[in-house]
Amino acid sequence: MAKILVIEDEAAIRRVLVKILSEENDAYEVYEAEDGLVGIEKIKKEDFDLVLCDIKMPKMDGVEVLEAVKKIKPEIPMVMISGHGDLDTAVNTMRLGAFDYISKPPDLNRLLNTVRIALDTKVLVVENKMLKKKVSKKYEMIGESDAITHIKDMIEKVSATDARVLITGPNGTGKELVAHWLHEKSDRAKGPLIEVNCAAIPSELIESELFGHVKGAFTSAVKDRAGKFEAANGGTIFLDEIGDMSLSAQAKVLRALQESRIQRVGNDKDIKVDVRVVAATNKDLKKEIAEGRFREDLYHRLAVILIKVPALNDRREDIPLLINHFLGKISEEQGTAKKEFSDKAIRLLQDYDWTGNIRELRNVVERLIILGEKEVSENDVKLFASK
């Protein structure tokens, strides 16, 4: 159940807001505070999903409340309530981190739409932060080869900037891992990292997924919905397999990069976004451009920095380190004692043709842990790691 706090010093308006929200959706649990100081105390004690806050109040005005909330619980979206004379201040609160503002007296549809979108965005951001906590230890770049050392050096140089990065390389080489490292080492690390697999989303839905939509934009659009670009505001959006994106969606992504603005499907209202774009592909985009499947202007926008992730066959000297890494991870996941690999077994694995790259190596290591002897031998590799 979504918990909403209404901070408003005018009792009549406060009661109206509480009544509207309570009656609109049984899933809303609505609380109220008569001024900013009371509101801040409640926010410290309770976990709210959304706060509606008046701007002009005694004791502590809405701008001060907004600044305090952004310090103590920055993940809570704040919607400001402005009187006619407060519009300039309301617009300024957006620069300070407010999600949106609504004017007095509140328009019913505008209020409810803003609340729904703010709550949808909060869910996306929180889910992403939870995922990030789970995977931060998972995403390590293992290797000491010249190729991997070069990538690490590039990440160190590039991560502190907002330069767009295009990551290329075959499937299974670790392009997603590079994107995570870029984000986690950047100044945007406290913001969200939103991942979009362009190949996994049907072409007719990709624009809605990226930019959101308004109610009625298409048959299944039963309510307004924020897209991934809005969810990534202040952070990074990772467009994986961008070579599979439709030309129509490419045009909209290009506009977003040029103007830092997007439009939801079914609406012509511009929404300003502050997002760093990192993209990845296993395709030869120059070939795709020549064949009319990818926009050249978008390519040049994305490829400010190019990072090429090598195939595992081109960094065989890293295989012993990768095997040891996977041994620890898989043993921990399965709750079993860590096995050892004989030197001959490792050398044999280094000679294999790894067409599936690191992903294939991990699968083989897991198979050998399950089927091999206490110390995985050369014979085990010949028996269980064969193609």
From TrEMBL:
Record-linked SUPFAM superfamilies: CheY-like (SSF52172), P-loop containing nucleoside triphosphate hydrolases (SSF52540)
Keywords from the named record: ATP-binding, Nucleotide-binding, Phosphoprotein
InterPro entries: AAA+_ATPase (IPR003593), AAA_lid_NorR (IPR058031), CheY-like_superfamily (IPR011006), P-loop_NTPase (IPR027417), Sig_transdc_resp-reg_receiver (IPR001789), Sigma_54_int (IPR002078), Sigma_54_int_dom_ATP-bd_2 (IPR025943)
Any one of the GO BP annotations: phosphorelay signal transduction system
Keyword Phosphoprotein on entry: yes
Location of the Sigma-54 factor interaction domain: 141-370
Protein name per its UniProtKB record: Sigma-54-dependent Fis family transcriptional regulator
Residues with 4-aspartylphosphate modification: 54
Single GO term (MF): ATP binding
PANTHER family xrefs: TRANSCRIPTIONAL REGULATOR (NTRC FAMILY) (PTHR32071:SF17), TRANSCRIPTIONAL REGULATORY PROTEIN (PTHR32071)
Organism whose genome encodes this protein: Psychroserpens burtonensis
Domain of life: Bacteria
Ranges of residues in domain Response regulatory: 3-119
